[in-house]
Design goal:
The complex is a heterodimer.
Chain A lengths: L7 E4 L15 E6 L8 H10 L25 E9 L2 E9 L8 H5 L6 E4 L4 E3 L9 H5 L6 E2 L6 E2 L5 H5 L5 H5 L5 E5 H17 L6 E3 L9 E5 L19 H7 L2 H23 L6 H6 L5
Parallel strand pairs in A: 2-11
Antiparallel strand pairs in A: 1-5, 2-9, 3-4, 5-6, 7-8, 10-11
Chain B lengths: L7 E2 L3 H25 L13 H26 L7 H8 L1 H5 L14 H23 L11 H31 L3 H7 L1 E2 L1 H7 L1 H8 L4
Antiparallel strand pairs in B: 1-2
Helix pairs in contact in B: 1-2, 2-5, 5-6, 8-9
Classes of the chains: A alpha+beta, B mainly alpha.
The complex binds protoporphyrin IX containing FE and iron/sulfur cluster.
């Protein structure tokens, strides 16, 4: 084994199996929206650890800042003021890569090894292999990858794969002052989330629940939502995300079949020539025109 | 002699230049595009200086192809209007492919198959440019909703595969029909060749003799 503490079990644009001998536990970052106070410590910690610095933007009259994910802001807090049965609620969701078990970005990527998935479930971009086509943006059901105008590569949350590989928790989880972000094995996190959901239900949030959408095989970033029946109110969190049928069609079996068909066409042409011979001027016509030769 | 004036002029120098320019750019666009089509073809990026260069260059090859193909389209469009005789020709195409041309209706400058191919090329080109712009991430994709980019990705890949298949057919048809590559290379064809493959055109060019 190479000097690496995590195997890569899935690799973009690779048709043979990746190392899958060893088994690792799946990890999850659990974001408890009901505990988040919107302080953005996680946003700052992310930039600190990953050495990214976004441009100073302009104030849009809301707390969201920056207004969207960028190649330098891999996580942003999304603030929504929503009227629910309980009156006006301020819902704050930490947005970023969900680390899908079946990632649409990885499926779409044409560059071998530009997107990988580690055995613990983390989905990571390897920018040195990225060609900048943006197919991952087309494939992502959560609108996460951002193409950098500076180097033409895409960036997104790494789930601090470098920290996790050496047994640390992600920078955002480390820094969260209210414990709204916790990190651990998927089993532990589901257990913890269930406790949180039960607590919320006992306090009148009848529809509280866990967000771990099965359409993408489950995710390695999960939310505890007060209103799990309406994820859309959390700044458009998709209700039943899945890799678009168009992307599945685009990246599906039709392509290898079409490639074979093209090759078969070339062979077919050759054998047509061998069996039928060329389409030449007939003897009679040649005779008629023999003066021309 | 290649340019014996007794031979019939089939393609003018500008038509030939335009054709071969289009052919060269097509190969650049198709080989660079194929490298993203399936991992099997990714090594083709080495022809263009690696993955990033291939990604940068491909759409520009596509636009160059549009310009060159567009020139051909307007040059040849009138000559490719499909007539009832061409439809009849297409109905007998199996016999032709089997090597038996006795029942084939007389072809004009272009036969029914060539004309159909011409319009299919034009349709593929139109689909490729329209979808190609939508998936051109560096400059245009941000103008379109992601679902449109997804549809365009499918359309682009499908139109490209069809166009490549048509070109394979086109090249083979040119090899199969002896001397037709010479026609595109040197412009003139032997009268016997014209009489054999394009009898109606032959009569038109020779003022009805034979
Ligand atoms: C008409 C202008 C064209 C434009 C603007 C265009 C643009 C693009 C773009 C932006 C991509 C994504 C990869 C990249 O970013 O480089 C692409 C992929 C591709 N292009 Fe084009 N292209 C054009 C014409 C063509 C032509 C003439 C062919 C040849 C048949 C072709 C074949 C392909 C193929 C096979 C792919 C890969 C599709 C896939 O990933 O499924 N394109 N094109
Ligand atoms: S932009 Fe990079 S990571 Fe995204 S699909 Fe293209 S090569 Fe893969």
């Amino acid at each position: 084994m190479a000097l690496q503490s995590l195997d890569i079990t899935r690799r973009s644009a690779t048709t043979t199996p990746s190392p899958s001998q060893r088994k690792t536990q799946e990890v999850v970052k659990l974001i408890d929206v009901s505990k988040c106070i919107g302080c953005k410590a996680c946003q700052a910690a992310c930039m600190e650890w990953n050495d990214t610095r976004d441009k100073i933007g302009t104030n849009h009259g809301v707390l969201d800042n920056p207004m969207d994910l960028t190649a330098n802001s891999w996580t942003v807090m999304r603030y929504s003021e929503v009227e629910t049965g309980r009156g006006l609620e301020w819902l704050i969701r930490k947005d970023g890569c969900m680390h899908c078990a079946d990632p649409g970005c990885l499926k779409a990527c044409p560059a071998p090894g530009a997107i990988v998935q580690y055995s613990n479930g983390i989905v990571d971009f390897q920018e040195e292999n990225c060609i900048g086509c943006g197919y991952c943006i087309t494939g992502c059901p959560f609108n996460i990858p951002r193409l950098s105008g500076k180097d033409g590569k895409v960036y997104k949350c790494t789930l601090c794969s470098d920290r996790v590989a050496v047994g640390l928790e992600p920078a955002c989880a480390k820094t969260c002052p209210t414990g709204a972000i916790v990190f651990g094995t998927k089993d532990d996190m589901i257990h913890h989330a269930e406790g949180r959901v039960a607590d919320l239900k006992s306090r009148g949030f009848a529809e509280a629940g866990i967000y771990d959408p099965l359409g993408v095989g489950g995710t390695h970033v999960m939310y505890v939502l007060q209103h799990a029946d309406k994820p859309g109110i959390y700044h458009g969190l998709p209700k039943d995300p899945s890799v678009s049928a168009m992307v599945t069609l685009w990246k599906g079996a039709v392509k290898p079949i079409a490639s074979f068909a093209l090759a078969a066409g070339v062979f077919g042409a050759f054998f047509h020539y061998v069996t039928k011979g060329p389409n030449e001027v007939s003897e009679e016509i040649e005779k008629e025109f023999k003066d021309e030769k | 002699m290649k340019n014996d004036p007794k031979k019939l002029l089939r393609f003018t120098p500008m038509e030939r230049a335009n054709h071969w320019l289009t052919a060269i750019i097509f190969f650049l666009a198709a080989l660079s595009g194929l490298s993203f089509f399936h991992p099997f073809f990714f090594p083709l990026t080495q022809l263009f200086g690696g993955g990033v260069w291939t990604r940068i260059l491909h759409p520009f090859f596509g636009v160059a192809m549009l310009l060159s193909f567009g020139g051909m389209f307007f040059r040849f469009k009138q000559q490719n209007v499909i007539t009832p005789a061409d439809r009849e020709w297409l109905r007998h195409v199996r016999e032709m492919a089997g090597g038996d041309d006795r029942n084939m209706p007389e072809a004009g400058k272009f036969n029914g198959g060539q004309k159909l191919l011409f319009w299919l090329f034009a349709a593929c080109m139109a689909l490729l440019i329209l979808s190609g712009i939508v998936i051109w991430r560096a400059y245009f994709s941000f103008l379109f909703p992601v679902e449109a980019v997804r549809v365009a990705s499918v359309v682009h890949a499908a139109a490209a595969a069809v166009m490549i298949a048509l070109i394979i057919f086109h090249i083979y048809a040119a090899i199969w029909t002896r001397e037709s590559i010479d026609a595109m290379l040197y412009g003139r064809v032997r009268r016997a060749w014209a009489r054999q493959h394009h009898p109606a055109w032959f009569r038109q060019m020779t003022g009805g003799e034979k």
